[in-house]
């Protein structure tokens, strides 16, 4: 019985082990199935993500795909703008006015070294005046029985000094500045006092020749000829204009004279003394003063009321509604203001030389130099086209447009061109060529190394590097713009507009051309 029990127990243990083994196998099988299911799910999920990513990339790529029509339209419009600006710059815009066809584009302002000059020479007046004295030694206007006539020099010996000659030169120089003469030189002969002005021949040269050597003597005199006010009492003279009344459109031009403190007090006293008055019958019996410049009477009148402002306004010409008349009156008043603001010339001069002198540089030489620069520019552009193909061709077109824009800027800003200014033009062209050539080299280098070219980044890199290199030149240019010597001023101003035009033009035009050209090439690569 015990043996049977042990056998049964052994069988039970074996069955239990077998069942346990089966359970473990079943669990292992379930785990394997679960792991396989998980792997399959992950694989399917990865495949879906990859597929979605590819689809998204394709969609994004299609969305970023540039429009060939837009790119070509921008390129064509840019080229048309360049052609138009070039035609205007080198050809002009002609309109018919009063039966004549005129170019409305301003002409170049050329300096004396390119255009020629007007020589104006003044010498000391050595003539004499006939002076009549009465028996008491007073100057009279008519000869009589007890009068004496003498020939006296206009410039007494005591006036003809080196100090007065120097003072005269300073006053003439100041008048030339106030008259806005663009280019001139002035030289004094200290021995005889003669002065030679070599100035640019322009529309107001004859006016300058008329006013530069006048004495500029201002006087307010009483009826007996006594001087009440003169130049020593003047603080400043200006030009003003305004309507005669609120109901009238006519404009009156005034020469406004502001007196200093002493002159203001004297003007107040004079205005109270020489005031308008009438007799019992209503007739004018006013005592009048005479206001004159260099012996020419401007006004002879009495004051209507006290003048305590220290400002005296003298009407020039008549009230008018004509713009041409008003401008002429303003010009006359401005010239008189120049005389009063510059001081009195102590020596009397006369105009001795007034002739035009041609430039020492022949016009043919300038044309030859321009042709040489043009040929060199053409050759460099051909090299650019050969080396960079389509980008080089469009850059060459843009390069010509830059030159046209620079020349228009010089003409419209009325920059005075001298030989130094021409050098600045050539230097600006060279800088622009270096910039464009460097930009094209960056684009070509990136085209070899990358599938997609970032033209805008290349442009920013080229522009930043150029500005960094040009910092010293920009500083020098700004300094020269304030130079008093015309050759340096001309170089500085031309260089200033050259740099400004280079920046704006390349950012707007060159960048547009190259960016859209490369995008069009990439658009073709999508196919």
Q: What does this entry look like structurally?
A:
The protein has 527 residues and is an alpha+beta fold. 56% of the residues lie in helices and 19% in strands. The chain contains eleven helices and 18 strands. The protein has helices at residues 2-64, 68-90, 112-115, 162-178, 205-211, 261-273, 323-342, 363-412, 419-449, 455-480, 486-526; strands spanning 94-97, 100-103, 109-110, 117-124, 128-133, 139-140, 148-153, 184-188, 195-200, 218-221, 227-230, 234-243, 251-259, 289-293, 296-301, 311-320, 349-357, 416-417. The strands form six sheets. The protein has a four-stranded antiparallel sheet. Strands 11-10-14-15 form a four-stranded antiparallel sheet, with helices on one face. The protein has a three-stranded antiparallel sheet with strand order 6-5-7, with no helix packed on it. Helix 8 packs across helix 9 (419-449) and helix 8 (363-412) packs across helix 11 (486-526). The longest helix has 63 residues, at 2-64. The protein starts with a helix and ends with a helix. Residues 1-15, 19-26 and 54-66 have low confidence and may be disordered.
